[in-house]
Amino acid sequence: MSRRLISFMRRSKVVVLVAVLILLSGVGTIIAQNPNSVPGMVDEILNRIIHLQTSVNAVQTSVSALIPSGPGNIRITPPVNVNFERNESANCQGANVSDGTLSVRIQFINSSGVTLTDQTFSLAAGQSVASGQLSSSPFQTVYCKFTAVGGTKNDIRGAIAFFNPPTGGARFSLPGE
Q: How far is C-alpha 172 from the geometric centre of its chain's CA atoms?
C-alpha cells in the first residue's frame, strides 16, 4: 500500500471515531442548531464524557460493595441426623490453628434453627475442644457453627462428630466450611 493510502486510512479512522462519538453523545443536535460553535461543541463533549465517567465510577462502587471484604470468621458443618433410640449421639469439635490464643464460639443448632448449646472457649494455639454433646431427643437433625472471635475462619477448624456407642468411637466426622 502506498503511504498516502495508509495516511488516509489512519485519518479516516479518527474521523469515523469522532463522528460516532458525536452521534452517540447527542452533540450532533447541538452542532445542527449552531454549526459555528466548535468551542461549545468541545465543551459539551467533555461534559458528557465527565458525566459518563461519573456514572461508570458509581457502577464500580456498587459492584465493589457486593464483594465480601475478607474470609469471614464463621465455619458451619453439614447437618447430621441423630437417632437416640439407637444410642447415637453427636458433638461439635473445634480447634485453634492460629499462632496465638483465640476465643472460639461453638454453637450446636438443630434443623429448626434453635441453638441447643452455645459456649465460648479461650483456646491456646493448637488446642482443641469438644462441645455440645447431644443426647436427649429421640431423633434430631443438628449442625455446628464455629466463630473465631477476633479472628478469621482461617484461624479455626471445626467438625461435627457422630457417635454410636456399640462401635466404640466416632463413626464419622464432617468438617465445617
A: 29
15 or 55, which is more confident: 55
C-beta separation of 80 from 120 below 8 A: no
- The reply to whether 102 and 53 lie within a common domain is no
Q: Is the same domain home to 90 and 170?
A: yes
Taking CA atoms, 149 is separated from 69, 91, 115, 129, 133, in Å, by 17, 20, 18, 15, 22
**d(C-alpha 130, C-alpha 97), whole Å:** 15
pLDDT of residue 140: 84
Cβ atoms within 10 Å, residue 157: 17
| The pLDDT of residue 76 | 94
